[in-house]
Specification:
The complex is a heterotrimer of chains A (434), B (460) and C (266). Chain B has 460 residues and is mostly helical. Chain B has helices at 3-28, 40-77, 80-83, 87-103, 112-150, 157-173, 175-197, 200-205, 229-260, 263-278, 281-302, 312-337, 340-348, 353-382, 385-390, 408-416, 425-459, and strands at residues 209-210, 225-226. Chain B folds into two domains: 3-155, no CATH class; 225-459, Orthogonal Bundle (MetI-like fold). In chain B, helix 1 runs antiparallel to helix 2, helix 4 crosses helix 5 (112-150) and helix 12 (312-337) packs across helix 14. In chain C, helix 4 crosses helix 5, helix 5 crosses helix 7 and helix 7 (165-177) packs parallel to helix 8. Classes of the chains: A mainly alpha (434), B mainly alpha (460), C alpha/beta (266). Chain B binds chain C through residues 262-263, 339, 341-352, 355, 359-360, 363-364, and chain C through 65, 67, 70, 72, 95-100, 102-103, 105, 107, 109-113, 121-122, 125-126, 172, 175-176, 179.
Chain lengths: 434, 460, 266
């Protein structure tokens, strides 16, 4: 019965293990739970971020406008009757708005009241009338009902961001203004309309006139320069390193360099741009050209790394097959490898460009942070870009700018989502398994 | 001729040269393409390269030297009393001239010297631009002629073209090197000028930072203080807060996704987490400044805590969340790279899943994870927008996360954005800070990449 | 006493089977890897599973300690009884099962820890020892039984990965022994080793037979002939033939077994 002796040890073991099991399984499920909690936290933050931005920003897509009866009085606009465009452009349209308001609310007589009354309208209301008249001078002499933008404070009041119950000294609109607004509301002369100006105007000091279009165009030119520089250079570098480069210390150095550049803080690229492009080469400040160059240097490593991965994924058998029928190495690359790797390279390039679109720190260094009202017309014009515009607006404390900042963020994120979707679709569509 | 049109003209000329060369090749072969050494299109490319390369070469050269060349001519043309000004005054004068010329000449603005200089400047610019156009186009045509003459059935066009293209590929691969050199040189050069006025030791070990140099000599605090220790401490404090948030959340979610989550769950959660990485940092900054910071301040005062409205905590928390996907994706890669055989070895001995993870997988993956965390630290240190928007400007030397501190990147931005007098220690200090930032992140990156690379080799 | 009887040889000298499997079907997603395998494993013997690659012998082996659970889309049907209890029963705890049925893998897979910690891993997670002295004793006795102790006794703190391939595999065996299992499964334990290391492991298997039931998957018919008492031949997911090793190698009943052992395919 030697079996007994040798079997007693395992039996003891079995008991010990059985005794330890509940504790160990508890630990196991606890550990799993920690993982879930971690993911939950991260996702909760994501939701919080989006909810907070959307809830702050959705209202910016609508703008309060007030319907006024405007008399395009010939004496005030074009006293000489010449219809000279420069005279028409320089006329006092703000006066038209003011007199129309006074016609509505004749009870405002004191200087202070009139001032309050005039503050109902945006200072941009006159520009709207100017554009109407210069486009169609036949309006002169007629009276028209026109929807004109309300001032930002009135906009906030209508949108419910100003607490009417607070004492007048603590809110930005006074009691009389509230009364006028209510009167306008009774007449259906104050409404919220879709805010087209936000999508067509450049920056402005007045929140109700500020738009995102200037920044969108600036971003477009900047990214155009970035793509034109970074894509060809990145692809050529990737091809060289993956297909031609011998493995030696020089190639190694380039590789370490690229990996390191990918991790260099973006602001350092801004310093490079400031010292080299602006101060050494004397290129213009605030220009999308320089911004694009800086971002190109920053995006280059991303494109190179993605490009190399895509090239590496093409199986060597295809290269050997082409070499076997007598193609030169360059022909192998251009005829076979590159077309097969292109979807992967493009995906990497789009993701790199999306990163560049969201980047702002290096652009602050090269002066793309200036207050620029005009929409840029070329890559040399001073401009700003979407994320920097957001940064600039975020600095303004008014509620109306907070709203616009959030809306700007939504626009920026919409662009990013679109770009990433394209990348995903591209990857899905051309995904290949060898 | 504007640059863009010149480039378009040259490109068209090159395309034209391609057809010319191809036709020439067919012609010299007497219509029998088989007599040629290479394909006709190779001859086309050969002539096109002859057309494009010299012209674009001179174009690039001119773009690089133009500003310096014009400047030296303008200086030479200045009246002697202006030309002999001390260098810094001369630079100012040149700046005026350039500004005036850029804005277009407006009569009567500026003094006589500047006006004359600006006119000279503009005429030189016009002259240069015309000369460039002429030279480039002549070179392009000469190139076509030369290439065209070289075309013969014996010409090894394919080999020449491929050699040239390979050379271009090699050249483009050196851009990365030049970028690094550019960064290092520009930072070193400007930082060296800074260290001429402020000793390195004061910068690295000084405890007081107030870079506001006075405009007039007799103002209070006329000489700024450039002790960067409070800035370094602030950077470390915020990064530490960020890592305390990012490492546990990132690591635990990576473990969950790599070891527990079903493939379908994983395919949903992973992209969701990656959204966090794709959100522009300016958005995080806005969120930190407008939502998180007021929330912390208000709740802090409920608890009787005095939380600054630009507390390190708010910036650090949000930065930590931003870094989560970074930590989690690297950890995920590293954990999945641990060979299955190790997991099976442990499971085969009767270990539970969590025991296997904690005692076998994580220790095996540790070097890779550490590398990933170091990369994340480097990112936290270099992160700019969140701290610019949510952290303070005052250089407090404190370890209290509820107070406002400032960071290296915040200081670089504040020193360089807005009106700057170049050459003042204040602006140069930004480059000294940039150099420090670059060096620290460089060391972190190189070391981390080295660890990760070694780790990958071990299990590949 | 009932348990004791189960492991006692009956009058005819036939031991009751340690493992008894019936109608085992294994699926990987849509693909069926094993078809109705019916096989009994005798205690304190070495049973070898042979057959051409992809025949299902490793799949079968991995059913015996439910290592297949790790594979997402794997499904096991049929009954696998260990000492009369179905190990796929819901009441069976897989952790406990694997402690009783240890496993040694194809490629030596020491943990990236010291030699000592590798062997101590199992006892530690299962809480088998109550103090350091007991643990040291268990580790040493396991190393001795795995025939590795003399070679490593001076460097127990060195990493397990610093050993040679054969030593690593013996370390893995020691690691399995330290949990004091009843059965040890070996999945081609010598396929990554040189002939000398292989001979050493084969010797070890023979010694271990005294205390453990051993099931070994092997590619080498010579190895099966040398170490095992019983041999089972698998082909295309089916168990073709099982019997005493000598019988299988001298007078196989099935034509396919005959072809395989004479080297016509495989």
């Amino acid at each position: 019965m030697t079996d007994l002796a040798s079997n007693s040890a395992p039996r003891q073991t079995t008991e010990r293990i059985a005794a330890s099991l509940p504790r160990r399984y508890a630990r196991d499920s606890r550990f799993r739970y920690y993982g879930l909690v971690a993911i939950g936290l991260a996702l909760a933050f994501l939701v919080l971020l989006f909810v907070s931005i959307v809830s702050k920003g959705y209202s910016a897509f609508f703008q309060t406008e007030i319907r006024l009866l405007i008399e395009f009085d010939e004496d005030r606009l074009d006293p000489n009757g010449t219809r000279d465009p420069s005279v028409l452009a320089g006329a006092d349209y703000g006066g038209l708005v003011k007199s129309s308001l006074r016609g509505l609310f004749p009870e405002a007589e004191s200087r202070r009241d009139r001032k309050s009354l005039n503050r109902l309208m945006s200072s941009g209301a006159g520009f709207v009338l100017r554009d109407m008249v210069t486009n169609d001078p036949s309006l002169i002499g007629t009276a028209q009902e026109v929807w004109l933008p309300a001032a930002a404070d009135i906009d906030m009041l209508i949108k419910g961001f100003i607490d009417r119950s607070k004492p007048a000294s603590e809110r930005r609109v006074n009691d009389k203004q509230i009364a006028w607004v209510d009167a306008l509301q009774e007449r259906d002369a104050i409404e919220r309309h879709f805010n087209t100006r936000f999508f067509s105007a450049g920056d402005s000091r007045e929140p109700e006139l500020a738009g995102i279009w200037g920044a969108v165009v600036g971003s477009f030119y900047t990214l155009l320069v970035t793509i034109l520089l970074a894509f060809p250079l990145g692809v050529m570098t990737a091809i060289y390193l993956e297909e031609f480069a011998p493995t030696n210390r020089w190639t190694d150095l380039i590789e370490v360099n690229i990996n390191n550049l990918a991790a260099v803080p973006s602001i350092v690229f801004g310093l490079l741009g400031l010292a080299v492009f602006l101060n050494f080469f004397g290129l213009p400040r605030s220009a999308p050209l320089v911004g694009g160059m800086v971002l190109a240097l920053m995006t280059l490593p991303t494109i190179i790394i993605a490009g190399r991965a895509a090239l590496k994924a093409v199986p060597p058998s295809i290269r050997e097959a082409a070499l076997g029928v007598g193609a030169s190495r360059l022909q192998v690359v251009t005829h076979h490898v590159l077309p097969l790797a292109m979807p992967g390279i493009l995906t990497g390039a789009i993701i790199g460009t999306a990163q560049a679109l969201g980047e702002s720190a290096p652009l602050l260094m090269i002066g793309m942070v200036a207050f620029i009202v005009d929409v840029p017309t070329g890559p040399i014009d001073p401009a700003t870009v979407l994320p920097v515009q957001i940064y600039l607006w975020a600095d303004s404390p008014e509620r109306a700018f907070v709203e616009r900042t959030s809306a700007g963020i939504m626009v920026l994120i919409a662009f990013l989502v679109a770009m990433n979707l394209i990348a995903v679709v591209l990857r899905k569509k051309f995904e290949r398994r060898w | 001729m504007p640059l863009s049109i010149l480039i378009a003209v040259l490109l068209t000329a090159s395309a034209f040269a391609f057809y010319l060369g191809r036709g020439r090749a067919v012609a010299v072969a007497g219509g029998h393409v088989r007599n040629l050494h290479s394909l006709p299109s190779h001859y086309g490319a050969y002539v096109a390269l002859w057309c494009a390369l010299p012209a674009f070469g001179i174009l690039a050269f001119w773009l690089v030297v133009e500003p310096a060349a014009i400047e030296s001519f303008v200086v030479a043309g200045l009246p002697p009393e202006a030309a002999n000004l001390p260098p810094d005054r001369l630079a100012l004068l040149l700046n005026d001239i350039r500004n005036l010329a850029d804005r277009g000449l407006v009569a009567g603005s500026g003094d006589q010297t500047v006006m004359a200089g600006a006119e000279h400047y503009l005429s030189l610019q016009r002259l240069g631009s015309t000369a460039l156009t002429v030279i480039a186009i002549v070179l392009a045509m000469a190139g076509v002629a030369v290439g065209w003459r070289f075309v013969s059935p014996e010409l090894r066009a394919r080999n020449s073209v491929e050699r040239t293209i390979t050379a271009i590929l090699v050249a483009s691969s050196t851009i990365a090197i030049f970028t690094t050199i550019g960064i290092v040189l520009s930072l070193l050069f400007e930082a060296a000028r800074f260290f001429n006025t402020v000793p390195v030791t004061e910068f690295l070990f000084g405890l007081e930072w107030s870079p506001q140099t006075a405009i007039r000599e007799d103002q209070v605090g006329a000489s700024g203080k450039f002790g960067a220790v409070p800035i370094f401490a602030g950077t470390m404090l915020i990064s530490a807060i960020a890592m305390t948030v990012a490492v546990p959340i990132g690591l635990l979610s990576a473990i969950y996704m790599a070891e527990y989550a079903a493939p379908r769950v994983r395919s949903v959660i992973k992209p969701l987490l990656e959204i966090l990485a794709g959100i522009p940092t300016v958005v995080y900054g806005f969120f930190a400044a407008l939502t998180v910071a007021p929330f912390l301040r208000d709740n802090g005062s409920l608890l009787g805590l005095d939380v600054a409205s630009e507390s390190a905590l708010a910036a650090g928390l949000v930065m930590g969340i931003m870094i989560v996907p970074f930590v989690s994706s690297i950890s995920d890669d590293v954990i999945t790279a641990v060979p299955k055989s190790l997991r099976e070895g442990s499971l085969g001995l009767g270990a539970t899943k969590s025991e296997t993870i904690k005692k076998v997988v994580l220790p095996a993956a540790l070097p890779g994870i550490v590398g990933g965390i170091l990369l994340a630290v480097s990112r936290a240190i270099g992160e700019t927008m969140i701290v610019v928007m949510a952290a303070g400007l005052a250089a407090n030397l404190t370890a209290n996360p509820l107070q406002a501190v400032t960071t290296v990147t915040v200081q670089i931005v504040t020193l360089l954005v807005g009106d700057q007098e170049f050459d003042s220690p204040k602006t140069l200090a930004a480059f000294a800070l940039g150099l420090t930032l670059f060096c620290v992140t460089l060391v972190l990156n190189v070391y981390a990449l080295f660890i990760v690379r070694k780790y990958r080799e071990k299990y590949d | 006493m009932a348990a004791l009887e189960m492991t006692t040889p009956d009058a005819a000298g036939n031991r009751p089977p340690k493992f008894s499997t019936k109608n085992v079907n294994v699926f990987y997603g849509e693909k069926q890897a094993l078809f109705d395998v019916e096989l009994d494993i005798v205690e304190n013997q070495v049973t070898s599973l042979i057959g051409p690659s992809g025949c299902g012998k490793s799949t079968y082996l991995r059913c015996l300690n439910r290592m297949n659970d790790v594979v997402e889309e794997c499904r096991v049907d049929g009954s696998i009884l260990l000492d009369g209890h179905n190990i796929y029963d819901r009441s069976v705890d897989v952790v406990q099962l694997r402690a009783e049925v240890g496993m040694v893998f194809q490629k030596p897979n020491p943990f990236p820890k010291s030699i000592f910690d590798n062997v101590a891993y199992g006892p530690r997670i299962h809480g088998l020892t109550s103090n350091r002295a007991e643990l040291v004793e268990l580790v040493e006795s396991s190393l001795i039984r795995a025939g590795l102790y003399e070679e490593v006794k001076d460097r127990l703190d060195n990493p397990g990965t610093s050993l040679s391939g054969g030593q690593q595999q013996r370390l893995c065996i020691a690691r399995a022994i330290a949990v004091q299992p009843e059965v040890i499964l070996m999945d081609e334990p010598c396929s990554a080793l040189d002939p000398i290391a292989t001979a050493r492991i084969e010797e070890l298997i023979d010694e271990l037979r005294e205390n453990f039931t051993i099931i070994i998957v092997t590619h080498s018919m010579q190895q099966a002939a040398r170490v095992s008492q019983r041999t089972a031949f698998f082909h295309l997911g089916k168990l073709v033939e099982v019997g005493d090793t000598e019988m299988i190698f001298t007078t196989p009943q099935d034509q396919r077994t005959q072809d395989y052992i004479t080297g016509r395919f495989g």
